[in-house]
Design brief:
This protein has 150 residues and is mainly α. Helices cover 69% and strands 5% of the residues. The protein has one domain. It contains 5 helices and 2 strands; from the N terminus they run βααααβα. It has a two-stranded antiparallel sheet. The radius of gyration is 17 Å and the shape is elongated. The protein starts with a strand and ends in a 10-residue tail after the last helix. The mean pLDDT is 83.
């Protein structure tokens, strides 16, 4: 799911810190806005917008963090509104609902662990490439201004 790659470009301390912070931003937002799933996406998006003109290393990792949060918000929002419809509506708890919540929990825990791992490794200057999100990030984020490819 996650691969750690060595590459010729060695990011400096400032770049590694910003790239690591892009992953940590979603975790900090999780603590602040737990019941509302879109808070994580907004926090990561604001961090992305603030660093979109940074070095390629920082842009690449902020883009990957944003893409992971974007997919997570859809999964969490569906579960959130389904729960609201059960609590305040006429729906009842079903096997489908419980199954979905288990899948959401597994997906969120996996993303949580991957985010922490990515933040730690990125802070060390390693390049962390997530399955699917890394490939999408390669398509979206292009090196510029004579910067090396990761």
């Amino acid at each position: 799911m996650i691969s750690t790659n060595a590459f010729t470009y060695k990011p400096n301390e400032h770049e590694a810190e910003k790239a690591s912070s892009s992953y940590l931003m979603s975790l900090v937002a999780l603590m602040a806005g737990l019941p509302i799933p879109i808070i994580n996406l907004f926090a990561t998006m604001f961090f992305y917008l603030a660093n979109r003109k940074g070095t390629y290393y920082v842009r690449w990792h902020t883009t990957q963090a944003l893409l992971s949060q974007l997919s997570l918000v859809f999964i969490n929002s569906y579960g959130f509104w389904w729960t609201v419809s059960i609590v305040f509506g006429s729906e009842s708890v079903s096997n489908n609902y419980i199954s979905y919540l288990i899948i959401v929990l597994i997906f969120n825990l996996t993303e949580f662990v991957a985010t922490i791992y990515s933040a730690v490794q990125t802070r060390k200057g390693m390049h962390i490439h997530w399955w699917l999100y890394g490939d999408l990030t390669d398509i979206i984020c292009k090196p510029g201004n004579g910067q090396n490819n990761i």
